[in-house]
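Please, structure for the following, as C-alpha cells.
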Amino acid sequence: MVNGTFYSLKYAMCSGGSVWFDKDWCDHVESGPWTINIDEKEYPELIPYIDEITEVVNENVPEGCCGGCV
C-alpha cells in the first residue's frame, strides 16, 4: 500500500537468484534479493517510492531463485 492505495506488484518482482552449472555439470541454485520493475507509464505515482518498495519487499519476502528448472 502506498499513500493509502493498494497495488498488486506480483508480476513486477524479479528474483536476484540464479541457476548455473560448474565444469562437472553439477547444478547450483542460488537465491537472491528481489528487484522491482514498475511500468513507469502505468504507475508513474510509484516511481518516487521504488527504493522504499524494494526495501519493504526484501524485508518481508524470502529471497527467490531464478524460477527455472534444473
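The chain is about 15% helix and 20% strand. The chain has a mean pLDDT of 87.
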